[in-house]
Design brief:
By secondary structure, the chain is an all-alpha fold. The protein is built from 9 helices and no strands. Among the domains are: 67 residues, Tetratricopeptide repeat domain (Serine Threonine Protein Phosphatase 5, Tetratricopeptide repeat), CATH 1.25.40.10; 56 residues, no CATH class. Helices cover 66% and strands 0% of the residues.
């Protein structure tokens, strides 16, 4: 039943895209159509619209990023790496692309690249998600515990602890707002 509803939503979105005609044929409108389909989890159809957006504007970093997400959801990890890499080449400070690329390298067991990319993401924006991706990459890397010892020290999340456990970071301190008298 849920599959039928999803199919009807996808068909409706495709019909709407067809009806809107040539006046909505720019890269941004193609991207929006793709994003609507992406939210419906219609990844192959969304990917087609992201690719149309890229054809219209080859410098559209966000379209490459969303293409990477579609490829990842479809299990096409090398194509996701290519899409995320292109987004980063176009917009070097694109945190989300760096973080997603780190995760995707992990799916491909490319630990050296995963650690490097996660470190770049963390340098841009201390994020628990990026830190977790880095931890997964280090834990899975053959020399992970040794590498972790070499990285031990202050981080935005507390001290990195090379103990053999799944949690390598102390919890972040909880900051509370205080009123001035």
């Amino acid at each position: 039943m849920a599959r039928l509803v999803l199919s009807l939503l996808v068909l409706g979105a495709q019909a709407l895209a067809t009806v809107t005609g040539p006046s909505h044929n720019d890269a941004e409108s193609q991207f929006k159509r793709g994003f609507d389909l992406f939210r419906l989890e219609a990844y192959p159809q969304a990917l087609a619209f992201f690719e149309k957006a890229i054809d219209k504007n080859p410098r559209y970093a966000e379209a490459y990023f969303q293409s990477g997400w579609c490829y990842s959801r479809l299990g096409r990890y090398q194509e996701a790496v290519n899409a995320y890499s292109k987004a980063i080449a176009l917009q070097p400070d694109y945190f989300e692309a760096h973080n997603s690329l780190c995760w995707t390298y992990g799916k491909l067991s490319r630990w050296t690249e995963a650690v490097s990319t996660c470190s770049e993401a963390l340098a841009m924006r201390p994020s628990l998600e990026a830190f977790n991706n880095l931890g997964r990459a280090l834990a899975s890397w053959d020399s992970g515990p040794k590498r972790l010892k070499s990285l031990a020290g202050p981080s935005p999340f507390g001290l990195i602890s090379p103990r053999p456990s799944t949690t390598w970071a102390k919890p972040m301190p909880v900051w509370t707002a205080t009123r001035s008298p």
